[in-house]
């Protein structure tokens, strides 16, 4: 008996739908857990860490920071997401918690004008005697000079866009990395929302918290030998 043509076509469509459904499930799993398996910070280290995420102007163009903050909170890491104009009051808040012993590791992340405000926030914290473990800027929009440092400062910017490299002042203590991601497909408005960029930011934060068990570098001192470095990184592919 010859197979019915409609039955064969229906079976083929059903098979194709099953393959599509399986593929959709796999893609969903990747989207939910985009970062590769890695050692997570210990609960104690995470609990004594605070990540401050500074949005840019109008508070509507840096919503990728909210996503980063939610993922960090899912790891048990306390976060504050605020507009960049709050940088000074946030520095006071962080300094109070640090001096009271409630906070050990301070990490700053900013996008656009939020990235431009990071050196000012670091400088104020240093003046208050508080070290900054890590700062990550995403496409700072104005020429920025880092006069006092975090233990590590990573400036991810789009070299052929509005972003600018961060310059190191004489005597800067700490490590400065300028990472140009031109040609990666990200723009100024989308850099904070790009999956690869978000994964890198979170991975750098996790690594910094893991390092926080080691003694922190002393707060910047005038006249200390400069240790600023610049490094280019392979541009991340946009997902």
Automatic annotation (TrEMBL):
InterPro entries named among the record's database cross-references: AB_hydrolase_fold, UCP_Testerase
Highest rank taxon of the organism: Bacteria
Region of interest called Disordered, as start-end residue ranges on this chain: 220-239
Protein name in UniProt: Uncharacterized protein
Record lineage: Bacteria, Pseudomonadati, Pseudomonadota, Alphaproteobacteria, Hyphomicrobiales
């Amino acid at each position: 008996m010859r197979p019915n043509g409609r039955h064969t076509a229906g079976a083929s469509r059903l098979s194709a739908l099953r393959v599509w459904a399986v593929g959709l499930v796999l893609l969903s799993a990747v989207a939910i857990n985009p970062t590769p398996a890695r050692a997570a910070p210990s609960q104690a280290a995470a609990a004594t860490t605070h990540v401050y995420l500074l949005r840019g102007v109008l508070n509507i163009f840096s919503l990728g920071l909210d996503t980063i903050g939610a993922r960090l909170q899912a790891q048990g890491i306390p976060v504050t997401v605020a507009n960049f104009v709050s940088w000074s009051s946030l520095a006071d808040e962080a300094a109070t918690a640090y001096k009271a012993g409630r906070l050990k590791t301070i990490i700053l992340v900013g996008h656009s004008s939020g990235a431009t405000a990071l050196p000012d926030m670091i400088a104020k914290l240093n003046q208050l005697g508080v070290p900054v473990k890590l700062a990550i800027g995403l496409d700072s929009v104005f020429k920025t000079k880092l006069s006092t440092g975090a233990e590590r400062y990573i400036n991810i910017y789009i070299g052929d866009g509005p972003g600018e490299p961060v310059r190191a002042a004489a005597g800067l203590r700490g490590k400065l990395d300028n990472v140009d991601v031109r040609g990666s497909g990200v723009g100024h408005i989308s850099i904070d929302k790009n999956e690869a960029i978000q994964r890198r930011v979170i991975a750098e934060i996790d690594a910094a918290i893991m390092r926080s068990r080691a003694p922190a570098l002393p707060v910047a001192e005038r006249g200390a030998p400069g240790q600023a470095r610049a490094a280019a990184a392979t541009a991340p592919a946009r997902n």
